[in-house]
């Protein structure tokens, strides 16, 4: 069984609650899923770590952690992802945290760890409590490369290999947890992907994930190490070898978020006769207009210093937190102004069917990645297969769109409709964005205001919200 960002644990009623709360623009009872990055402490120092600028030496004390878990469980939390700003297993009381999660019946949907601290006890917990997925971020293929990438003594590599073997052994015939081995590819190790594959398959894991090292906030990574579009041709023979080798076993999940590499992958797949393994299928009821994020009704992430953030992709030093669990209860945050603002912004994107330009003045919580279509892979990758959910969401959202997005209505309703029109007609948009037209529009709006108010008051013709 694989991790699903908690979606597999969400009941039909909770899904309906989410849809109805989107429609009504109200909060749900509480997050159904949470990412708990309980510690910022780490036992290695990866050169590429995307958390290095957020990292403190803090962790949420165990007393506070258990209170938080109790509170979240009481408002309907069903599952967690344990990951980090540091390493989740480097939390000083990780055994107590896990025991408390189990006591409250909360499923570990995913544990993402460098694996250094995974011992027999933790392996036993993960198997006995049916954790859904464990990702080992091994990243490197041998001890020397491990030392280069993680900036630690080479001997730690063998420790992680032992940890992986321990979990595979303790799991035995159980299907829980699914074990994923992750390698990170840069310009120094890209030619070694066949060795990586062989290591993964010899360890008996369920999936071998190969991802590119990506640029991090504040651009700290040596540019010489990052894969470039023009490296695709050089890499092609190695990718072909590994795809051919995996043709039968189907263990490989290879994904290059590097511009221009998709074409190379398509070419190689065609030659090797392997199809792109679409790991995340889409339900027939899924419509692009409903592609927007609904995390503000579903989940939240808490980091080692107690900060609350929308998701792991916005664990970024340049994105302000939504609050802090040490300030007030999670429920107060969930119902408070920052989460409500995030809901307002997400709802706008949903109402406009994604046809909205990102403007930092309009979106104060969401970032471009959340608004511009096709940039965020996380927001519904695991959910879009859910036929029933997307059918219901679509039916209910379409009704709301008819009411709240229209040419004849309040300025807000008209603005939404006009935004969609301009999005669909970029040439008109260029014209309208000219200063003169904008001034004409403002003049028209101001000068017709008394008339619109009068129509509303006396004839109940609602062309304005200015009463
Ligand atoms: C920040 S780590 C936290 C959990 C744990 N310490 C670990 O390394 O698995 C979460 C995941 O992000 C990946 N990651 C970190 N920085 C990255 C980068 N610059 N590019 C791609 N993946 C990255 C790590 O390899 C890891 O799988
Ligand atoms: S193990 Fe994870 S948290 Fe630690 S430095 Fe590496 S990527 Fe960052
Ligand atoms: S759209 Fe993506 S980055 Fe933005 S909040 Fe949702 S999951 Fe996070």
pLDDT averaged over residues: 93
Give Rg in angstroms.
Answer: 25 Å
Structural class: alpha/beta
Shape: globular
Span between termini: 57 Å
Q: Going across the major beta sheet, what is the strand order?
A: 7-6-5-4-3-2-1-8-9-10
What percent of residues are in strands? 5-15%
Q: What is the helix/strand order?
A: HEHEHEHEHHEHEHEHEEEHHHHHHH
How would you concisely characterize the structure shown here?
The chain contains 16 helices and ten strands. The protein is an alpha/beta fold. Strands 7-6-5-4-3-2-1-8-9-10 form a ten-stranded mixed beta sheet, covered by helices on one side.
Identify the notable features of this structure and list them briefly:
10% strand; 467 residues; globular; binds S-adenosylmethionine; alpha/beta; ten-stranded mixed beta sheet
Characterize the structure shown.
The protein is α/β, with parallel strands linked by helices. It is built from 16 helices and ten strands. It has a ten-stranded mixed β-sheet, with helices on one face. Strand 5, helix 7 and strand 6 form a beta-alpha-beta unit. Helix 4 runs parallel beside helix 6. The longest helix is centred in the C-terminal third of the chain and has 25 residues. The radius of gyration is 25 Å and the shape is globular. The N and C termini lie far apart (57 Å). S-adenosylmethionine (SAM) binds next to strand 3, strand 4 and strand 5.
